[in-house]
Amino acid sequence: MNKKSDVVIVGAGHAGAACASALRKLNFPGSILVIGAEPELPYERPPLSKAYLADTKRFEDLLIHPGSLWQERNIEFMLDTVVNTVDSEQHCVITDAGEIVHYSTLVWATGGAPRQLRCQGSDLQGVHSIRTRADADRIKADMAHVEHAVIIGGGYIGLEAAAALATLGKQVTLIEALDRVLARVAGADLAHFYESEHRAHGVDIRLSSAVESIEGHDRVTGVLLTSGEVIKADMVIVGIGIIPATHALTAAGAAGENGVLVDLHCRTSLPDVLAIGDCALHPNLFAEGQLLRIESVQNANDQAAVAAKTICGDLVEYRKIPWFWSDQYDLKLQTVGLSAGFDDTVVRGDPSLRSFSVIYLRNGKVIALDCVNAMKDYVQGKRLVMEGASVAPEVLSDTSIYLKDIPH
């Protein structure tokens, strides 16, 4: 089968869906085809490790738009379809079924695949990752037979999964190779707070611990640490990051390592090919122009808007401030900015009251905030990050002074 569409979007996640919607809002008159590897229409992924896993949200509530709306906007989908090959010279992609789809413009929005353990037993039944609805459904189907769960990885996915399972009454052990959780994305103040919260909810956190192998025959029964200790496990959830799904595009000659390199207009090095979302390696102005991949809904949506404008001939630059959130127990973390490279922190508020903010500085300038149950700080602190404001630490820590009232 041969098809053709003016814009072909590969990837039906947040980024792909947002790009298709943005094109129609810009009155793009051409045909739009979205190719998705999963059988479902675009849906929200963050709740998979939170409310959906904890059975407090139905899948229907996760859909970004109902099917009727996509039809009204004349956006076509090819679902349950993987693109294996990109031919940039012929302006076409080839699917796993051998279908050839021609494009005038290609948007690569494939996200990534969960990074897998590379040890004996990693393929046993009961070893899971969380990236898709199918992943979460497999975990939920296993849940009735699980008493002891082991989470490998102390990033946000691991912590959110630990919170969901602990809330469901499971005995949870979380294994982190580094000396604290969130070590790659946050400072020690936030890490120690979350470690305390999880321990208070019964989660056994093992820091500076590495996995030697997964034990069991057909199904997992335990996790062997390099220390020689075996932790009992009826289920293992691996949350150690993702690998960007870019092989077909880089095989076609697209530049980039650990992602597809794009410019500030989301254009790759291939003609008429753009990339957005988790797989896009881009120069981020809030990281002093360094190349980054940002795995967040914010980045997916905002890059999608830029890509849509680029396709329509409006070359705006991607300059949006990064933000992110995480729900664990009754704690809502809201992050704005990028804390990488900070050289000082200020704690605003009292962590013991479970409402506070960590403000990150570099060379005396505010670069990011982590706000726990402190929405006002999050909303008001965004301006300080955008402006790179230089503010004395004693002023930032004074909760009698609203962040919005700090002089520019």
TrEMBL record:
Its cofactor is FAD. This is Ferredoxin--NAD(P)(+) reductase fdr. Gene3D superfamilies: 3.30.390.30, FAD/NAD(P)-binding domain. Residues 323-406 form the Reductase C-terminal domain. It comes from the Bacteria. GO terms for molecular function: ferredoxin-NADP+ reductase activity; oxidoreductase activity, acting on NAD(P)H. Its EC number is 1.18.1.2. It holds the Pfam family Reductase_C. InterPro entries: FAD-oxidoreductase/Apoptosis (IPR050446), FAD/NAD-bd_sf (IPR036188), FAD/NAD-binding_dom (IPR023753), FAD/NAD-linked_Rdtase_dimer_sf (IPR016156), Reductase_C (IPR028202). PANTHER family: APOPTOSIS-INDUCING FACTOR 1 (PTHR43557), RIESKE DOMAIN-CONTAINING PROTEIN-RELATED (PTHR43557:SF2). GO terms for cellular component: cytoplasm. Residues 6-304 form the FAD/NAD(P)-binding domain. The keyword Disulfide bond does not apply. Keywords: FAD, Flavoprotein, Oxidoreductase.
